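Checklist before submission:
- one chain only
- standard amino acids only
- sequence pasted in full

Submission:
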Amino acid sequence: MEVRIALLGEVTAHVRGQRVELGPAKQRCVLAALAVDLGRPVSVERLAERVWGEDQPRRARATLSSYVSRLRQISADVRLERRSGGYLLVADEDVVDLHRFRRLCARADRAEGDERAAALLTEALGLWHGDPLDGLDGEWAAAERDRLEQERLGVECDLTDLLLRLGRGEGLVAELSARAAEHPLDERVAAQHMLVLYRAGRAADALEHYRRLHARLVAELGVDPGAALRELHGRILNGDPALTAGAAAKPAVVPRQLPAAPEPFVGRDDELDRLDAVLDRSGGTVVISAIAGAGGIGKTWLALHWAHRHLHRFPDGQLFVDLRGFSPDGAPLATHSAVRGFLDALGTDRAKVPVEPHAQAALFRSLVADKRMLIVLDNAADTAQVADLLPGTPACTVLVTSRNRLTGLITGHSAHHVPLDMLADDEARALLADRLGAARVAAEPAAVAELVGLCGGFPLALSIVSGHAAGGLPLSALVADLREFGLGALDDGDPEASLPAVFSWSHRALTEEQAELFGLLGCAPGPDIGLPAAASLAGLPPARTRTLLRELEQASLVTRDASGRYRMHDLIRQFAAERAASLDSGPALRRLVDFYLRTAHAGNRLLHPYVTPIELDPPEPGSRPHPLADDATALTWFDAEHACLLATVDAAIAHGLHRAVWQLAWASSTYHFRRGNRHEQLMLWRHALAAAEHLADPDVRILAHRLLGRACADVDQPDEAMRHLYRALALAEDTGARADQAHTHHALTWSWIQLGDDGKAMEHATRALEIHRTLGNPAWEADALNAVGWCAARLGRHDFAREHCRAALALQRNHQDRDGEADTLDSLGYIDHQTGGYQDAVDHFTAAVALYRALDNTYQAVNTLDRLAESLRALGRPDEARKTWQEAESLYRAQQRAEEADQVRQRLAELDAAAERV
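Returned file contents:
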């Protein structure tokens, strides 16, 4: 293909290998929004929503037309056509990497043999080059990005299953360790990790992983591991020999997905009787009861209450899904996503799940055929969303809730309609009595009567009111609030679609301290917040902050996830931000920025003990940096706060906190280097340089130019890297900053190596060493010695190279510089390999890998693994080389380093070809 469009990473287009300029971010978003639905028209309204969300410009249609006109110039192989009120992208599937990825996955599903399927999935995953839709912002891009990342995780797990069946578990240990850390509560990932550990002879580690997961599930979710994982644990305990031959067999799965029954539940006797009669008359055949009614009327409560009363009628299990048909925070759940969720719940081997949605629906119907199951489809948008979720045989009972009547379901599928109306007055009083106690309701009869009338028989409104009253607020005060704020949000019969008034009731019931924290949380940058950060935001001790957060959680204004972090629903967050407009949130934001900056600064020094610390401003009053014990806890903290750190940089930019911007970039540098977050590192240092231009501090500009240059080099932008590095060098020479000169020469060394000019690289490495020897910092001198040794080795001066690297190693070991020691061991291994000392090379590379792993530096560890495999092959140990390269390829793929992974795949192919010739 002459043209390629990339969505699985930064959104780009290439024509005949040359990158095409796609214009501003919104124009690139238009291309992505059409490319995702390749070959299918996207209406102008939906396209505008994807590009701008709700905040659309006045001339959105004209702007879209302009964007499309410019994008039409990409290539003749890509056509953007106007169709029936919208646009569509017409191109071959292979043009767009997302659709090529899915096509390869579909071919893998149809492939004959696991080897071929694994190769196809490996090729498919090799198309990913970072976060999907990178460079785009907005709600649609974020939601699509999350969905695509889940799709990638599923394929990664499918590939792992194939490799396990092929007996390649040992090479997956590092990859699965990283995946298990990223998805700590995913039982499928946990099972794969345990199995590869067991096959690698690490049964104790596998059992320990299960113990930690078990403890975490119980502590955070109150549940035990599922049956399949418990069975695998037992087989590992018993040393089941079958585990070394293939993956553990899955037991029959009986899903129990129903949420808890609502308590208390009052009234609805007529509707419950109708549902009972429908089930009894049908004698176990398919029953579709479309329970229609307005939002907040109690449809889901009725469905769950009835379902729990009849669990004995469904011995083969119960499935439940919220179809989000009228969710205020996103589009309805796609039918194929619901089907896929059901397939997982039924224990389907993901490797056997077809890619095409219609084939998945057919598989689902086959799995539930003749089973006595209950399927609850909650909050359906329309009949089309439900149709593929209906079983094809007369055994299951299906319960559908929707705000619409779903006429197509009633007429086309013989559904029984059970409409819901408001609660009667006596039922509403009974609900309040159950929530507040009969004595309290009897004590204020006039207030109760008025509350019942004002709430209009809506169970949701009554529940919110009773929740506020449970804190001791007199019912008469609640009546006064309702008179003042009204129930206008419920006039359209859909309180979830217009909830500000209801939120106002919740807000009015808060104490002053709770209300202030609620408002500040709405302004906090990032998708969530941990307790330490929230304490600094509030300027309160952690214990008091924890109490307030729990109170807000009880008021349903915040939620706490499995990791203990707090989140707000988007609408509640927006409401909270509006409330915060009356607060002076500037000091709170400065406290939060100070918290992130000081904690990250301490973390950076733990990860890189020999880095020169930067000078921070005096701490903000009330800021409480989080203590970090060692480099492992620092990495854990950075992992948890990564998204919030990036958002904090954006907030600092928006509020003109220029010093904080570049300091946050500096404090995050080692973490991003360890994790291989090259593009994020580049983005941060671009922001840092822009901030530095506002400051009258040449040292900051030198630092920003130098580290931006390094970041450019790391993403293969050598020309821009050189511009910034030579600018940094010139500034350092003008100011006489000797250390900065040396550091910049050091950075230029690696940039010239990247450009293939080892002579130039040697000049800069030598100059860096000369300066560092005058500065009295042994860690810097050792780094420079290693750089000179590396350049000398590339120039063929091996004895000279070895001498310098050994000198570097002695300094690093004397000062316990483990990062530097690992780098120099890698250099010595390279020198040994170049001079034919392959066993010495293996020893040096192996020691370097061990150090990198101890530092949790997988980014550099994989480079050394690659070189280790080459030395093993040279020693005539192809099996060990193969295992090492397989691990390297997996790590390269996990780090989205497709070019390196492809090179390793070629070396593996060469090994296989050589083995066949023997």
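Reviewer check: The radius of gyration is 31 Å.
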